[in-house]
Amino acid sequence: MDVSGIKSWIAMELVSPLAFTYAFLHSPLSLANFGNSPALSLSNPPTFLAGLYLIHYLNRSLISPLRTPSRSKSHIAVPTLAVSFNLINGALMGTYLSSPLAERFLTGAFSRPLFWVGVGLWALGFAGNIIHDEILLNIRRKAKAKGKAKVQADDNNGKNKQEHYAVPHGWLYDLISYPNYFCEWIEWLGFALAASPLPSLASFGSFLTTVTPPYLFFCSEVFLMLPRAYKGHKWYQSRFPDYPAERKVVVPFVF
Fold first, then answer.
1. Contact by Cβ (8 Å): 163, 144
2. What pLDDT shows up at residue 119?
3. What is the H or E stretch that residue 2 is in?
4. CB atoms within 10 A of CB 162
5. Which has the closest alpha carbon to 12: 68, 69, 82?
6. Separation CA 27–CA 200 (nearest Å)
7. What is the mean pLDDT of residues 49-69?
8. Which residues are bridge partners to 17 per DSSP?
């Protein structure tokens, strides 16, 4: 069964900030349960980082989809799986940032250079995501403005209505096919650097025992998006014979 692309996107993405907010304020590990409720002020590092998380999802769940002229319908399985992921991730991130572990690590964070390096990477990735999404939105807007008559004619002739696709250009699109994915990785890597100690890389077992939700989120983003980016890159190459040969998949100059 197919569902509305825009409505299903909003519904599945709103799950994350709602789960995050509830866990941040009410999770069993929250400092509130130890008689030390975190101050809901930007002068408190965990709350500052919580604000960055919510800013991202305000754009992702509401601002961006509501500005999208059109989005292809999606099979019900896609938003269902996304709801599950966002529910778990939001709850884990909110629980971590309100926990004694995060409180200890983030004590004095505003005076540490690495914290601001991480925040800077988050801001750079967030801005890059918006810029490259805007390029895609402009393609859809132009197609909608110029293609209404053609779509109607195709429908009258019995042809299937399809979304408009074109080769995007500008900024990192001149280097890679999926700069929005790459920018999101930069964003969440920066968030993890600011919010959490680095996990141990001595072995896979030690990594599993030391990884925290911010790094787990970053790793899961790369794991889930990388195959989609590769598949999409190949699709672009097959659909557009003049697709730029020098354009990489998702990491500039590398892959």
1. no
2. 97
3. strand 2-3
4. 9
5. 82
6. 26
7. 91
8. none
Q: Is the pLDDT of residue 86 over 90?
A: yes
77 alpha carbon, distance to own chain's centre: 19
Number of other CB atoms surrounding residue 84 within 10 Å: 12
Confirm if 215 and 201 have CB atoms less than 8 A apart. Answer: no
pLDDT at 39: 58
Instruction: Please say if the pLDDT value at position 158 is more than 60.
Output: no
Give residue for tokens 């299903």.
8
Structure-token match 């800013």, residue found: 55
Q: Give percent above pLDDT 70 in the chain.
A: 88
Distance (Å, whole) CA 135 – CA 139 = 7
CB 229 within 8 A of CB 177: yes
Is the CB of residue 61 less than 8 Å from the CB of residue 11?
Answer: no
Residue 60: closest CA among 90, 100, 30, 32? 90
The Cβ of residue 254 has, within 10 Å, a number of other Cβ atoms equal to 8
Run of H or E residues at 32: none
Q: What is the C-alpha to C-alpha distance for residues 233 and 248, in angstroms, rounded to an integer?
A: 8
pLDDT of residue 77: 83
Joined tokens for residue 231: 């598949």
Closest by Cα among 50, 15, 46, 16 to 31: 46
On whether the CB atoms of residues 115 and 109 are closer than 8 A, the answer is yes
